[in-house]
């Protein structure tokens, strides 16, 4: 029965999606979902670490973090100005 619950939890996420979680005794970790496992989701951090995490511990990573590399590919377009 735990397997069914874990499966329904992990279906809330997509491969390639940025997620975060708080491991016990460590600072928050964020990474990209790369794989669904039987009871966990595998994340890979920007440092290359692989984490198998229970889906109930994951939450979406904020996309508006200042100073973060997650904004590196975002280009602000000011529609009111012309070139």
Comma- or semicolon-separated keywords:
83 residues; alpha+beta; five-stranded antiparallel β-sheet; 5 strands; globular; SH3 type barrels; 1 helix
What does this structure look like?
With 83 residues, the chain is of the alpha+beta class. It has a single domain (2-61), classed as SH3 type barrels, CATH 2.30.30. The chain is 11% helix and 27% strand. It has one helix and five strands. The relative contact order is 0.20. Mean pLDDT is 78; it is low at 65-72.
Could you outline the blueprint of secondary structure elements for this entry?
Elements: H1 2-10, E1 18-21, E2 29-36, E3 41-44, E4 50-53, E5 59-60
Antiparallel strand pairs: 1-2, 1-5, 2-3, 3-4
Total strands? 5
Strands side by side in the biggest sheet? 4-3-2-1-5
Number of domains: 1
Do you know the CATH architecture?
Roll
User: CATH class, please?
Assistant: Mainly Beta
Write a short abstract of this structure.
The chain is an alpha+beta fold and about 80 residues long. The chain has one helix at about 1-10, and strands at about 20, 30-35, 40-45, 50-55, 60.
């Amino acid at each position: 029965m735990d397997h069914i619950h874990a499966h329904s939890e992990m279906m809330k996420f997509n491969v390639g999606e940025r997620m975060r979680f708080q491991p016990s005794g460590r600072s928050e970790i964020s990474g990209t979902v790369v794989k669904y496992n039987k009871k966990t989701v595998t994340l890979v951090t920007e440092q290359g670490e692989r984490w198998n995490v229970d889906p109930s511990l994951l939450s979406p990573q904020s996309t508006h973090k200042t100073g973060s590399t997650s904004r590196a590919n975002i280009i602000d377009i000011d529609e009111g100005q012309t070139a």
